[in-house]
Amino acid sequence: MRTPAEPAAAPTPPAPRAASRKSHPRHGSALDHESTLSLIFRGYVPLILATLIIALPLIWMMLGSLKTSGEVVSRDLVWLPGSPTFDAYLTASQKVDFPRLFLNSTLVTVVGAGIKVLLALTTAYALVFVRFPFKRTIFAGILVALMVPPQVSLLPNYILISGLGGANTYWGIILPGLGTAFGTFLLRQHFLSLPAEILEAAELDGAGHLRRLVQIVIPLSTPTIATVSLVTIVNEWNDYIWPLIITTDDQMMTLPVGLTLLKNLEGDPSSYPILMAGAVVVIVPVLIVFTFLQRYIVAGLTQGAVR
Questions:
Q1: How far apart are CA 274 and CA 280, in angstroms?
Q2: Chain mean position to CA 249
Q3: How confident is the model at residue 42 (pLDDT cuts 50, 70, 90)?
Q4: Structurally, how many domains does the chain consist of?
Q5: Residue-range definition of the domain harbouring residue 267
Q6: What is the pLDDT of residues 174-202, one digit of tens each?
Q7: CB 180, CB 229: distance < 8 Å
Q8: How would residue 305 be classed by pLDDT, with cut points 50, 70 and 90?
Q9: Would 221 be classed as within a structural domain?
Q10: Roughly how many angstroms between the first and final C-alpha of the chain, as a whole number?
Q11: SS3 state of residue 193
Q12: Which of 129, 161, 228, 281 has the highest CB neighbour number within 10 Å of its CB?
């Protein structure tokens, strides 16, 4: 006798993939960890290496100025001074009149940088907001000036300034470098990005060019102006070739040129701490100014370079 066919068994549902579900968070965290490491490697490691390359010579010079001559010229590398001393600074101050040199550098830098920034501001404003003929030709001339090395004009400037009696004078040091093509170019590029509606509204209210520059353009351009000021101050303070050529009197030399008064010590290895101390005196004021203005640099260069 034929037995009735048994009903077919229901298909068994697949087992839940518990293992695969648990693996997703681990996979995601591994990816996040990988991307973080990649970001650190691509971003921070080159930045740290660049900082070390720039900062280590300065740190080594500062430490060397606090060492004795035996620690500097020793065959065994001495990283830190055993007993820090300021004897090198005292010796350098006896050989060079640092207060007078510091006064000269401060006066030349403040007056020269101030006039440069003022001329760059007014020139860039005129190139953007004032209508006059040959504007593009003048701007092309400014771009050409950016490409000409300053050493080309040393001889003509010396003949002109010395012929006018500017040798060993403050105005003779300051006058040839008053034009700043870099500052004019950077400020012009930034002024082009300013909203024209604001200036047009001020013009309708009766504001003249000077009022628009002082009350509208300058407040909107603080980062870029700070960047131009910082670059100009550093260039004025560190300028060496032109003050060296135009000054022969020790009382009119700037700090970088005044360090040449220590040149008779260069052949003596025991004088290395003295030379390092003089170099530290030159760079510390620039580092202080940079500390106050460095937060404007990136913003200023970005605003001035991108329209």
A1: 10
A2: 31
A3: low
A4: 1
A5: 97-305
A6: 998 887 788 899 899 889 888 888 888 88
A7: no
A8: very low
A9: yes
A10: 97
A11: coil
A12: 228
